[in-house]
Input
Amino acid sequence: MATGSPTRTTCPYCGVGCGVVATPQEDGTVSIAGDRRHPANFGRLCSKGSALGETLSLDDRLLHPEVNGRRAGWDDALDLVARRFSETIAAHGPDSVAFYGSGQLLTEDYYVANKLMKGFIGAANIDTNSRLCMASSVAGHIRAFGSDTVPGTYEDLEEADLVVLVGSNMTWCHPVLFQRLLAARERRGTTIVVVDPRRTVTAEAADLHLAIAPNSDVALFAGLLDHLDRTGLRDRDYVERHTSGLDEALAAARRRGFPGAMEATRLPAEQLRAFYTLWSRSERVVTAYSQGVNQSVAGTDKVNAIINCHLFTGRIGRPGMGPFSLTGQPNAMGGREVGGLATMLAAHLDINRPDHRELVRSFWGSPGTAARPGLKAVDLFRAIGQGRVKAVWIMGTNPADSMPDADAVEDALRACPFVVVSDVTRTDTTRHADVLLPAAAWAEKSGTVTNSERRISRQRAFLKPPGEARPDWRIVCDVAARMGFSEAFDYRSPAEIFREHAALSGLANDGTRDFDISACAGLSESAYDALAPVQWPRRPGEGLDGTATRFFAEGGFYTPDRRGRFVPTPVAPPEVSEEFPVILNTGRIRDQWHTMTRTAKTPRLTSHYAESFCEIHPEDAEDAGIAPATLVRIVSPQGTAVVRALVTERQQKGSVFVPMHWTDQHAAQGRIGAAVLPAADPVSGQPGLKFSHARIEPCEVAWYGFAVVRNRPETVPAEYWALARTDGGWRIELAGAARAQDWATYAAALIGRGEDPETLSYSDQDRASFRLATFSGDRLLGALFIAPQPVAVSRTWVVGHLAAPAIRGAERLRLLSGRPGADQPDPGPIVCACFSVGANRIAAAVADGAASVDAVGEAVRAGTNCGSCRVEIRRLIDAATLKTAV
Ligand code: SF4
Output
């Protein structure tokens, strides 16, 4: 195959929405580069985006439809889906069926799924994993603005004097935008404040870190509102002309005030005062927030507590100022535009308003529209478990792992009479599917996505779907046609769907709704294909260029009286539990995405953290009898998970942090969702994924192991295992409750036997320690290290042997020792995933005189691509400096 032409598309990971240029190569690989013309990233990509080309293999793809675990033809599978949904609706009513979608779906996919459910089935039971991500922002926006509007743009972060990041580990979760912010700080001296209970890498990069008590954000910002009032910072003109409800909000804030904020946040008075003073004195202030705010039972109040301060000072909608919700997913915003949440109608129309429902009904020509909001995610899976929802279609997401109380979700799916899953790969959710439909993946799909700053970008296909995979919009339309709605779903292309979506946004709008892209309603196929990134709104007659748009500098809110609303945010003390005294906080890590269906495919991205972990404060660890690197069991009323203890002072006492990513596909007992509380915000329905009651216990472990193997074993014979891909094979962390009778036999089962095998091994007398390496010809087939304590070998160095073309003589013995000789470099744990640079190489560069992050970059390239590891490099430099000083 000749080198293909470059295709401009969009990264499928986070809400920054970076532009990507993908170029198929002669050897079948695809080269990936940042799109210099895209206004979200101007050519930059983070570690995940840069590695996209390594995630396109077909080894685990779903290639054919399956019915009850057996291959089926598309016609049979689609007929069955349509028939079972129609029969269920006929027998039990429209509310007995549901769709559960994903922020990975394109806007066009979302549009037709929403149209089918709300318009033609007549229920609103379509919700999405975006409910877990930013529903509280949506609810907070609607309460304050009358619409789900993000007022500002990314440029505002660059034009602000003060940027406050609340509950946002932006360095890892929105890396390219964070690099833009750091560059702006270099240029103009922006002050960065991070509000986060954890000392994250973002907090370490900040000028001020407010390590508040978990869930005390409302008190912090209510205290700020009170402070702004007391110090005369009210923008009287703005408040009087454009807002309502201040008295109630102020009264609520005053009740707690500074003392209340101090008590709830547990911050020292001077630090709290310094923050309030900083915020007061900075006209250009952006308060950006993400999951630490949204994923809370008080998430909507947190959002409104922040917005209140911006409305009070009139710092909204002007360059360099405003509240800013950073969405987690690539198309969370697009899903909101088309009504992909159970609580919305399409085009930001209100499902609770009969006139809006009628507008949509007549536009679609549907028999009716859902008359009330449907079930939000947590309630939806609860309803499935209770048998009220009897048929569910899950599209492009993995609720068996990502939902709170994930074991109960699995039970619900197991009991559900009919489960359809359309997806790209097998997941823990697909094992419950009666019908499995192979969907086209990122590289094969065409449509649009909208990023956190309301910018619509094209996602363009550059590969053909493999096997029988089809785009999601096509699958939904095929089912809709079989349910009797062929005329309304007779689309021939995503462009046709987009035009309809754009036309609906302008219907009877006249500036009464924020979301209006009717300037796009007449796009030809070729104009749609060529569409450059464009921010909404784009009203009739407006150009489709890249100019920034902002809202609310001059009021013009979308409430009935067009005034922005202050919302009182009472502060509720957090619940405490004696039996489960620890707060479990879950979230993302730098190089993984959601449930790892894509990011686990590339060794580059598994090298930073190859297994799940629990960040725990040293005193908590000591109290619980948990030693560093041992295994810890997290127990909650919902369930348990077992992960590695990472003892660190970055974690507050009384709380632990566990990544959300690991599933049964990559670990035994690593599904932290099983331990997460299903409590949700009463307004938004977003679950409080960052605050579950739990306790931590040491695991009884008789042996620990570490293995590298060329082939993934079908089963791993250990109570605990965590598996990650490496160059040339797999690495496995192991642990068990009882030692094997014969470690050599155990190793053979794990590693397998190649041709002409040669095995070297070592065992101490009581079999507590054991090492083995098996070679097939010149190459390593696998190695196993067993010890009574966590295995201390140089993992990166050992892993590197899997890809080595030949290992002979003394090198084989050295491998058995698990450590390189003095003449060999040991890269150490990988810090920079972009260039695979380990901590030891960085330390060596520092020892050689590299005293700054830039100098380290010059010496070993670390930190010179996406920049997400620069804080970790700084940490290594500081540690080396401290050591020298001592
Ligand atoms: Fe993708 Fe990274 Fe850009 Fe997010 S910051 S869109 S993950 S390249």
Remarks:
- The chain is about 35% helix and 20% strand.
- The longest strand covers residues 779-787.
- The mean pLDDT is 95.
- The pocket of iron/sulfur cluster is lined by residues 11, 13-14, 16-18, 41, 45-46, 48-49, 174-176 (CB under 6 Å).
